[in-house]
């Protein structure tokens, strides 16, 4: 795949978190319904994601309180990808941080065809009208959802970062659907069936 085409692929398809060309969006798979019994892979994935959300929140919360936090958060995200690659454990998910008004402060995506390659996501875009984030911004819940781009499906997982009753920002993780199956053994349906709020 030529580099220009690959970059376009990541900016669009890799933007499973919040792609601009979203169309035909389905209802968010984040309603709090009784959770069905999880498979071993689902249980492991849920535990890992909740732990990751907790860890990343501890990292980013202090930065969100600083003036002009975006560049500092982006530098931290970039460093995480670099360090993971040095340890031969490249990150398989997008990592993005939005502010309390749904504007993207920082974002990096891995190439699903080669996790050693990463791309900067769209920083500065506002997603206050992206309804699949409503559970996060309006209900203080973790939202898991499916998104579509012209290149195919992806999956997002976003969690509020709060200090007391004040929303400081939102952490978002994004997954390429094929990579999620290949690397973690989780299908789209299995991902959406997980209730991350219970």
How much is the radius of gyration in Å? 16 Å
> Helix coverage percent of residues?
25-40%
Strand line-up in the sheet with most strands: 3-2-1-6-5-4
Net shape? globular
CATH class (first level) name: Alpha Beta
CATH 4th-level superfamily: PAS domain
Mean pLDDT: 85
Strand content: 25-35%
The beta-strand count equals 6
CATH topology label? Beta-Lactamase
Give the number of helices: 6
Low-confidence runs (pLDDT<50, min 5 residues)? Answer: 1-32
Distance between the termini: 42 Å
Description of the structure:
- With 198 residues, the protein is α+β, with helices and mostly antiparallel strands.
- The protein has a single domain (3-193), classed as PAS domain (Beta-Lactamase).
- 37% of the residues lie in helices and 26% in strands.
- The protein has helices at 3-12, 40-64, 69-86, 134-139, 177-184, 188-193; strands at residues 94-99, 104-111, 114-120, 143-149, 152-163, 166-176.
- The chain has a 6-stranded antiparallel sheet, sandwiched between helices.
- The longest helix has 25 residues, at 40-64.
- It is globular.
Task: Provide the descriptors you would attach to this structure in a database record.
6-stranded antiparallel beta sheet, 198 residues, single chain, Beta-Lactamase, alpha+beta
Chart the SSEs and their pairings.
Blueprint lengths: L2 H10 L27 H25 L4 H18 L7 E6 L4 E8 L2 E7 L13 H6 L3 E7 L2 E12 L2 E11 H8 L3 H6 L5
In short:
The chain is α+β, with helices and mostly antiparallel strands and 198 residues long. The protein has one domain (3-193): Beta-Lactamase (2-Layer Sandwich). The chain has 6 helices and 6 strands.
């Amino acid at each position: 795949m030529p580099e220009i085409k690959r970059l376009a692929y990541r900016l669009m398809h890799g933007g499973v978190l919040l792609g601009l060309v979203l169309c035909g969006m389905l209802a968010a798979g984040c309603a709090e319904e009784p959770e069905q019994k999880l498979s071993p892979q689902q249980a492991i994935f849920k535990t890992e994601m909740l732990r990751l959300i907790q860890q990343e929140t501890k990292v980013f919360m202090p930065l969100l309180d600083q003036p002009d936090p975006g560049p500092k958060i982006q530098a931290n995200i970039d460093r995480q990808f670099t360090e993971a690659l040095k340890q031969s454990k490249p990150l398989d998910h997008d990592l993005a941080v939005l502010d309390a008004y749904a504007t993207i402060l920082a974002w990096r995506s891995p190439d699903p065809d080669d996790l050693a390659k990463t791309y900067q996501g769209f920083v500065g875009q506002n997603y206050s009208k992206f309804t699949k984030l409503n559970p996060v911004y309006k209900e203080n819940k973790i939202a898991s959802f499916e998104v579509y781009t012209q290149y195919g499906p992806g999956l997002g997982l976003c969690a509020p970062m709060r200090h007391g009753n004040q929303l400081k920002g939102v952490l978002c993780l994004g997954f390429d659907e094929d990579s999620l199956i290949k690397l973690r053994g989780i299908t789209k349906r299995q991902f959406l069936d997980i209730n991350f709020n219970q």
